[in-house]
Amino acid sequence: MTAPRQMALGAFLMATGHHLAGWRHPRAHAGGGLDVEHYRALARTAERGCFDAIFLSDTLAMLPGRLEALSRMARTEHFEPLTLLAHLAVSTRHIGLVATVTSSYNDAATVADTFATLEALSGGRSGWNLVTSSNAEEAGNFGRDRHFEHACRYRMAEDFLQRVRQRWRARGVAPVQVLAGASEAGKELAARQAEVLFTAQPELAGAQAFYRDIKQRVVRHGRDPAALKVMPGVLPILGASRAQAEERRAQLQELVQPVVGLSLLSDVAGGFDLSRLPLDGPLPELPPTESGVSRQHLLLELARREGLSIRQLYQRIADARGHRVVAGTAVDIADQLQEWFESGAADGFNIMPPYLPDGLDDFVAQVVPELQHRGLFRRRYSGSTLRDHLGLAHSKETAEHG
Length: 402
What we know:
Residues 21-345 form the Luciferase-like domain. This protein has 402 residues and is of the alpha/beta class. It has helices at 36-48, 67-70, 81-89, 108-122, 138-141, 150-171, 184-193, 204-220, 242-254, 258-268, 293-306, 310-317, 330-342, 358-373, 386-390, 395-401; strands at 8-12, 53-56, 96-102, 126-131, 176-180, 196-199, 229-238, 324-328, 348-351. The chain folds into two domains: 8-236 and 324-397, TIM Barrel, CATH 3.20.20.30; 246-315, no CATH class. Helix content is 45%, strand content 12%. The longest helix is centred in the middle third of the chain and has 22 residues, at 150-171.
């Protein structure tokens, strides 16, 4: 008898939380980005909740934006993710450990050897989120006058990945391959090579269309559609009632400082300076970007569809940067996750707490038991590796495929 399908859950840990003003919440750990005990506690909380993995992002340059805005953020200083995950490997026993590393500004042999080391230290729990660098500021840190063009970055990424896998095959390891994004080039690379795909999908219909599209591409490339787990990002805001959850969301929105909101919008829009435009006017047509192509497209579509001003637009993305936001009781949030999971929109979710540590604590204490009660999520780990948790092929088979 076939076991019932269960959702995957990742915990996306961003220093003090994902809401742009989350660090200002009275229960947030504003200095969490440089506190290893903070991360250790978060990893253990996620493991107590039987999450598949924790996930850390990274960039090889200062975030884009003016100093006035950057000095009012809590996400500009944080640990290098691979080093931190190596430390967390000895503080945890089961949970997967996924780090972001760019293929545009790294050496393939170094990346291969570093992840092989994390795979050994963790007992098979590592994952590599391959990115091509959406932050154009990275170019200057590596002696380039300008960032690589988007299409060029993806051609480089595929070659880079093959060189990494050659080195992994020689060592008999295969960390789980993660990708993020929704551009045409990104979807094609994911369909050929990824095992987990992180994506920003704010609406159900769009998520279903994306899910169908990516699974069909996987099949066209001769792969089993179950070999790629599609995991949209979700920012949950919990309350004892729906009214309380909405009140908590409004409180977070009130903490957003305009200069910071505008800086975030400029970054997500492709790095264009919007500071001289009227905040209550419309977002103008923007030229194509070579940075976050899919995220710029999502932003422009949202602005056009809802007729949002620049101020309204940065307020809309301040909580989750274009990812889905769900506010309500634990039952409400479980209902919405179940609907997406069962209606062909997701294989699981990358949970993005608005502020930390309470946002993760609350999700594990309230939503996870509700999902377990419905038979949608595990009550205990049945394996010891990240591949076990995700139901993916093991290293020998995966290495041969690669």
